[in-house]
Amino acid sequence: MALTNVSLACLRCQVCVRLGWGTNEDLIIQILAHRNGDQRKKIRETYHETHGEDLLKDLDSELSSDFQPAERDAYLVNQATKKLTASNWVIMEVACTRSSHHLLSVRQAYHAKYKKSMEEDVAHHTSGDFRKLLVPLVSAFRYEGDEVNMTLAKTEAKTFHEKICDKAYSDDDLIRILTTRSKSQLNATFNHYNDQFGNAITKDLKADPENEYLKLLRSTIKCLTVPEKYYEKVLRLAINKLGTDEKALTRVVVTRAEVDLQRIAEEYKRRNSVPLDRAIAGDTSGDYEKMLLALMGHGDAC
């Protein structure tokens, strides 16, 4: 986006802020939802240079949540450690579905905003097996390449099988493998597990379907290997429950819009026989609906 377009977008945002968000929903949606993260960052910087103010503070939190993805994710994790909004699943999502460099940026943003480490807060607000899994997950810096050690994959598939048979679901070796290996390596390991032992590893981790730690462990494996299947389920539950779970729906659409939302939408349609945009449109309304659909690519940029 050229600088002139950035300046124009800033001017339009300034007009909306001065006139009041309440009468300018459509214009704000057109300006922000159709830009990617880098473009929104540039708009924020230019807005500050031009007007001496922070656009994020001038717009409400729902609207500004996607300007800086690292700041947004730091906020999500912080909220997930609060007593009234606690969610081990949100912490796990951020830890497992972001790139190593992005997760590092999230930890840095957390330091800057909350004056303590993300690992410190996650450790303080979790306990037992949940803490044992989540703290190394949020601390991880995985190799991002495609190289795989097939011998190691076979060995570690056997390790997983032994630990699962012994019901040692929080064994140190199991946690170490899950929290340090690259996603490519883990995919190879779980493929070997399926081939060697005849079941998907997530199926063998359903010995106690009501065990909350095992649910989180299965979701961790899904997020690391097939995140579109994990997010499809989150969306399905958010849309189908009595009264839409707007927090979950917003979180998925906003955080995955520039990552893999198209794959998630394809998985949603395959699983539910309904296009995701149609499901969202049927379950939401007004400016909230417009913003979500704009993030999915509907409509034109202003």
What would you say this structure looks like, in words?
By secondary structure, the protein is mainly α. It has 20 helices and no strands. The protein has helices spanning 3-19, 25-32, 37-51, 55-58, 61-64, 69-80, 88-97, 100-114, 118-125, 128-139, 150-165, 172-180, 183-197, 201-204, 212-225, 227-240, 246-256, 261-272, 276-283, 286-295. The longest helix is centred in the N-terminal third of the chain and has 17 residues, at 3-19. The model is unreliable at 18-23 (pLDDT under 50).
- The class by helix and strand makeup works out as mainly alpha
Total strand count, please?
Answer: 0
Strand content: under 5%
The profile of the biggest β sheet is:
none
Mean residue pLDDT: 85
Oligomer: single chain
Percent range of helical residues: over 70%
The coarse overall form would be globular
Uncertain spans: 18-23
Helix-strand sequence: HHHHHHHHHHHHHHHHHHHH
Q: Give the N-terminus to C-terminus distance in angstroms.
A: 12 Å
| Rg estimate, integer Å | 21 Å
Helical run tally: 20
Question: Could you write a compact summary of the structure shown?
Answer:
The protein has 302 residues and is mainly α.
What key attributes describe this structure?
mainly alpha; single chain; 302 residues
